[in-house]
Every structure is written in structure tokens, then in C-alpha cells.
Records
---
Amino acid sequence: MCKHCRTTEETTEHILRKCGKTAGLWRHFRNKLKVDDNRINFQTWLIKNMMDQHTGVDFGIICWNLWKQRNEEAMDGKSYSEAGLIQRVNAWINIYSQALINAQKCLAPVDKTKSSLEIAWKPPREG
Ligand SMILES: [Zn+2]
């Protein structure tokens, strides 16, 4: 039995996309993510959305948080409101976005004129 809605059998598909208690979360992110049609096969839906070049990571963050929420409810007795879960997903999306920005800064092309001056070898003085 689903720990979240307590109306039907708990399956991975139910937890990640069919549970009525998480429908609002998917509605909230639907426009941003362009999540594909709910009627297609679950495995296809999961792979297609995860592989999306622009929104795959955000989709994965949502699924991971739904799974994490399920485990916290089942094992720790915690519960989250829909708004709380949306807030948590947004926080993880922001953390990922910031990490990506920082990684891009690290990988930015180096100013060769400046770096060659800073790291150039100079022979020691004679003597
Ligand atoms: Zn449910």
C-alpha cells in the first residue's frame, strides 16, 4: 500500500508518476520541464525524460526526491506537504545549477598571455 496516498498498491511507477498526492508537484514543474505524456509506457517515460538534454537533470532531481520522500515516510515516519516537497526539489535544482555555474567557471578558457607570464620559467641568476 502506498504510504503517501494509502489508496493503492505501491509500485515504482505509482511513487514516481501516478500517486495522486504528487500530482500537484508534477503540475508545478510541467511547464518548466515539458514532461512527456503520462500515458506512455513507464519505462519509456522515465528514459525519455531523463535523457532530455535540457531538463533531464531536473527531472531526475524530482524523481530522486520522490523516492527519497517515500523512503523517509516508510522508514523514518516523516511526512512532507506538497509545498514542502516542491521547495526541497527547487533547492536541489538550485544547488545543481550553482554547481554547474562553478564548474563552467573552472573550465573557462585561460587568458594565455596572462598565464604564460605568471608561470614562465626564469633561469636563476649566475653566481
Ligand atoms: Zn500513492
---
Amino acid sequence: MSPALLELARGRLADRGIDPDQALGPSDLAPEMTTAGLYVTLGSVAATEKAGQNPTHALARLALRAGLSNEVADTLFLAYNQQSAEEAGHGDKVFGNAYYAMGGIAHLPDQSVVEPPDPEALLNSDDPKENRKRLGGTAALLGGAESVALQRLLPALVTLCQSWGHPIGGDLIAQIRDVVRPEESRHVLIWRYVFHELIAPKTEKVIELYRQTTNDGRMLLAAEALDRGALDRMIGTSAPTLRQLLGKDRVGLS
Ligand SMILES: [Fe+2]
Ligand SMILES: [Fe+2]
């Protein structure tokens, strides 16, 4: 975290009457974190979540042009459209609001920690086979990054907010629990769905490519790679249902 950013953060927090130097202890995100560090982190989490809106909106459209069966195309269209709206909500509403409450101005795209896939590039082919390939590759990349967000980033943010003990942090903990975690779990389910419907019936080479691209996504958030056994455990033995993907069937989701 750059000293210049932290200095700026200290000023913004002090303006809101928040102690910028309160130590929040070690977390998975940094060996030591202060309120100023949490502020900077929330700005980049908000921007990174928001960056997920456009590529997932494009994926919904790509699914209709990838030569898939109607059922699979419809399922992916609905699930990715919903994900697109949810990522915008995480960025602008959940993390963006907490950032703003701490004195932040509107977060900017350049605060995103990942360069999102270009939505225009995703949609510029008319070849169904090529589109299927792009769909599988982008699903793996996003799913990899989201698996880390779910298992590591969100718990770390909750821990930091707990040590902070401020009402803004309390609100954010409730939002993460009630909104972000269930939605991110479903985004990881889309990664599983794409695997079972598009990838599993193909060759071992295609499956291996899905694993490697998933790991590329995990690496964007500096997480360790999944070996084949870990992938198999996370991916499960069957495709989730549409109701599970849309969050209409809470049973069996954890
Ligand atoms: Fe999200
Ligand atoms: Fe997500």
C-alpha cells in the first residue's frame, strides 16, 4: 500500500472524525492493518467488484451465441445477467457505501486490483465455437478470482471490521453476511455449472486448461493454485440447478 495513498486516507478519515491510525491487527490481507489501510482496501474492493459488472453482462450475451443447447444458453444468460447486477451492487452499494461513509469520494475504475476482461472483445466474434471457448475461459478466470474472494478476502474484511468496532464496520459485516457472501457463493456455482455443462464432456486437455485458467484467476488475487484433487473437490459431481444459480433454492447451498 503506497504511503501517498495512506496519507490521503488519513486526511479523509480525520475529516470524518475517524481515527486513521487505529491498529486493526494482522489479517490475511496484510501483516498489520490500520483504519487508513482498511479505507484504501475498501476503495479497491469497491472498484474491483464494480469492474465485474461489464464482463458478466457480456458473458450473458455471449452464452446466446455459443451454439449451446437452449436450456444451457438460457440458464447462463439468466445467471450471468443476475451476477452482473449483483457485482454492480457490491461495488456501488455495499463496499462503495462503506468507503463513502469513511470519507471516500466515488471509487474509480483505476482502483480495481484486476484488469477485467474486455466486454467488447468478448462479443466481437460470430463463430459459435470461438464464442464457446471465450465463455469457458472467462468463466474459469472469474470463478478462480471469486473463489478466493469468498474464501479469503471476505473473511479477512469481516475480521478487520470486527477489530475496528465502529458502526460503519458493523453495517458492512451485516451486508457481507446477508448479501455479498450468498451472492458470491452463487457466482462460484456458475463456474461449477460451466465446468459440468461445457468442459467435463470434453477431453482431458480441455479440463486441464479450465483448471489452469481458474488458477490464473486465483493468481490475480495472489492465491495458491488448485491441483487436480482440489479442483475436483470444489467443482462437485454435478451441475447446480437454475434455481440454485439464481438463489431461489437455498437448500443445498453453503
Ligand atoms: Fe461481487
Ligand atoms: Fe462475484
